[in-house]
Amino acid sequence: MSNVLTIENLTYRRNWKTILTDVSLQLPAGQIIGLLGANGAGKTTLMRLIAGSAVQFKGQIQVDGQTAMARRKASVSYTGQLTDIEPRWKVGQIAELMARLHPDFRMADFLQLADLLGLQQKQRFNRLSKGNQRKLALAVTMARRTQLYLLDEPFDGIDVMTRKAMLNSIVRWLPNAATMVISDHHVTDIDQLLDAVVVIKDQTIVAHAAADEIREGGQSIESYFEQFYEGGENDD
Amino acid sequence: MEFDAKTPIYYQIEQYINREIIIGHLRPGAQVPAVRQLAITLTVNVNTIQRALANLIQAGILVPERGKGNFVTTDQKVLGKMKQSMIEGEFKALYDHLAALELSPEEMTAAFAQYVQTQQGGEAHE
Amino acid sequence: MTKASKVLGQLLGLRLKEIAGWLGLYVLLILGLSAAYALGWVDEGNYFGLPLSAMVFGLFAGFVRLAMLQEQLWTSNWWRLLPLPSWQLMVIGTLATWLTQLMLWLGAGLITAAWLTVVPGGPDLGAANIQGGLVLVALALVVELWFGAMISTVHLLTEMISDYLPDLRQKVVKVVLYAVLFVGLEWLLSGLFDLMWRLAAHGRHPEFSFSFGTSTADWGTSVQIPAGIGQAFLPIFVLLGLGTIALICLNAYLLDHVETKQPQQVG
Question: Which residue segment(s) compose the domain that C86 sits in?
Answer without folding.
Answer: 4-257
